[in-house]
Amino acid sequence: MKLKPVLTGVFAGLMLACGGASAQQGPEAPGTPETKTIGDWMVRCFPVNNSNPCDVFLELADQRSRQRVLSVSLAYAPAADRHLMQITVPLDISIQKGVTIEADGYKSPVLKYRMCSRDGCFVQTAPDNAMIEALVKSSSGAKVNIVADNGKAFGINVSLKGFAAAHDEMVSEARAKAKSPKAGDAAAPKP
Questions:
Q1: Which is nearest to 160 in space by CA: 180, 131, 125, 135?
Q2: pLDDT digits (tens, 9 = 90+) for 26-38
Q3: Which CATH architecture has domain 3-181?
Q4: For residue 167, how far is the Cα from the chain centroid?
């Protein structure tokens, strides 16, 4: 099985689960997720038939405007033994600069934006184990670095309170609930 088609399919599932699934209406909506809050993170498991039904999720909003400043979703696909991450930031960012994540002494490579919509700009990546380990072991939180269209850099502080326990819970739930894609369906998991 080739990893790229599997990851493409997993990202499609992740988009369904993370891309506003709780706000969708009608017969296409995946349903209300089971949720559990651990520290500042939420473990969500969606009632969908795909290879990565659960994620850990954090959303930060501006206290005055209540607009989303950042959301981070991290899922685990047991069949591929890979994590999948989606980071959402507001519009008016420098697409070319991408995003970096720092935690303690770790700094990620530049993570490229995959697309933008009226809801913001999205990074979708399969992070390596070093990033996951840095986030799990961090004692001081993390920082997501973005650059605005005007060139001004912003470091958005992200709490990792409860992240390690939430991550472990999510991986356990994902292993229990994941549906392995059939050989011919690797690129298109069914919602």
A1: 135
A2: 334 457 899 999 9
A3: Sandwich (2.60)
A4: 12
